[in-house]
Amino acid sequence: MRNWKYLIAAAAVGLAAFLLYRTLSRYSLNELIAAVTAVPVPSLLAAAGFAAASYVSLTFFDHLALRYVGRPLPYPKAALASFTALSLGHNLGLAALSSGAVRYRFYSRWGLAAGEVAKVIVFCGVTVGLGLTTLGGAALLLRSRLAVEITGLTHPIIVALGIACLAVPAIYLTLSFFVHRPLRIRCWSLEVPGFRLAIGQVLIGSINFAFVAACLHQTLAAVADVAYLGVASVYVIANATALVSHVPGGLGVIESVVMYLLPQENLIGPLLVFRFVYFLAPLGLGGILFAATELVLRHRGSDAHGDAPAPVKA
Predict the structure, then answer these.
(1) Closest to 193 in 3D by CA, of 204, 203, 182
(2) Among 201, 216, 281, 300, who pairs with 127 as Cys (CB 3.0-4.6 Å)?
(3) CA-to-CA distance for 161 and 149, rounded, in angstroms?
(4) What's the CA gap between 293 and 288, in Å, rounded?
(5) What is the reported pLDDT for 91?
């Protein structure tokens, strides 16, 4: 089916609308406004700071990925492509396609081939997975009793899940240290990054999600007594669910999962504040930045074309 991608996107948007409606329908408009305004300004500013730190961390995903494909670019270029792609991709859903298309728009202009851009996208996706599993494993093991209370799972299962999560980056680092040639899986060939790059992936991936969890924690802690590691473990579960569902920005998914695992009645306001700070504000900035960049690059391209000398006739 030629239009399967559009059908998946439409289904994701429909699921998002349903989940968001189910989450918000039990509140009146006045209750929602009161819940949002209950988050104090210092907590809002702290959440915004952690959100900004997360997006700065994300720029290093692309910086490392460009070194991985052997086409390093100046950091400002990598940061521009990364922030624009991810601020849009986080909200549009099907992130590998939406943010990937924006990345291709930038990197193809700067000399990267389509295959190299694809490798950048895969590298960044792997970095996301490494960050999720590392932070999730650490949170589950360090606060296993809290995780038991939140999820309702038994302590042995929580410990097993934590160990399994941490095994993923451990195996990845081991492969990067000992394997120095491409891994072949059927018709696929995967070039394992060097050990130093792999360490960078694990570190920056974990730091990014630690900042995102801190952003969410600042909004939740304003109205509820919740520990940071508990919020981190809940966010990892919610974000993994959102990634699997491909719902735009995890719309409705993150709210539903967090409110299910932390069933305090007054969390909807902080969750809406978190969505605005981490998703909607960067979306507006990224959209403006993308439009401005398109105008500037097209203008430069037309100037370069107009200034090109006419061919000399023999």
Answers:
(1) 182
(2) 201
(3) 15
(4) 9
(5) 67
Cα 68 to Cα 107, 161, 191, 269: the distances in Å are: 14, 30, 9, 41
Question: Minimal CA–CA distance to 223: which of 271, 278, 276?
Answer: 271
* Consecutive H or E run containing 184: strand 183-185
Three-state DSSP state, 188? strand
Rounded to 10 degrees, what is the CA torsion of 221, 227, 232, 238?
Answer: -60
Residue type, 181: R
**Residue 148: enclosing H or E segment and its boundaries?**
helix 144-151
d(CA 4, CA 180): 38
**DSSP for 16-72?**
HHHHHHHHHTTS-HHHHHHHHHTS-HHHHHHHHHHHHHHHHHHHHHHHHHHHHTT--
Q: How far, in Å, CA of 75 to CA of 6, rounded?
A: 34
Of all helices (H) and strands (E), which one includes residue 191? none
What is d(CA 213, CA 162) in angstroms, rounded to the nearest whole number?
17
Mean pLDDT by 10 residues, the chain (314 residues): 49 50 60 71 91 96 95 94 86 63 88 92 92 88 79 84 93 91 72 93 94 90 81 77 54 64 70 84 84 78 51 42
Specify the pLDDT at position 12.
45
Q: Which of 130, 131, 159 is nearest to 143 (CA)?
A: 159
Secondary structure percentages of the chain, helix, strand, coil, to 5:
80, 0, 20
Terminal C-alpha separation, the chain: 53
From 246, 203, 189, 254, select the one nearest 64 (Cα to Cα).
203
**Secondary structure element (H or E) that encloses residue 132, with its range:** helix 114-142
